[in-house]
Amino acid sequence: MVWYFWAILGILAIVFEVSSPTFFAGFLGIGFLGSALASYLLEDSFTVQIIIALVGMFVGAFVFKRQKMGETPASKIGQSDEFIGVKGKVTELLSEDEMGSVKLHVPVLGSSKWPAVSNSEDNIDVGTPIEVVAIAGSHLIVKKI
């Protein structure tokens, strides 16, 4: 195979890696670029090129797994854990089926007024103190305190 085919494959894999959140295409690109170098330096060495590509891919995957790069949890900034335990008051009647609204004592994500539903079958009247127990999409699930 001509060396520039391997180089094109390597560059495409690296470009794909940059545009995607995975960490796998970069290892393909490294293997392909290694094969491009072997093809350029050693003529008629297709078997060597394939071996270099495979070794580059497997070494990259091994290093990736060993460093546990893909196992780090995503940041939870702005997600549900930020709301759990925050207290407030009901500003519009809440039920399990009908959404109302609550005003939190501490603003979360720049706002203290949020849509909410009750976590029980009981209605929660206006002015009742509440605590956030979960988030579901763009609204809060609260309980009476």
What's this, in brief?
The chain has 145 residues and is of the alpha+beta class. The protein has helices spanning 3-19, 25-41, 46-66, and strands at residues 87-92, 100-108, 111-118, 129-136, 139-144.
Domain tally: 2
Class based on secondary structure composition and strand pairing: alpha+beta
In terms of DSSP E residues, the strand content is 25-35%
Order of helices and strands: HHHEEEEE
The coarse overall form would be: rod-shaped
Number of strands: 5
Number of helical segments? Answer: 3
pLDDT under 50 segments (min length 5)?
Answer: none
- As a whole number of angstroms, the C-alpha radius of gyration is 27 Å
How would a textbook summarize the main sheet? 5 strands, mixed, barrel
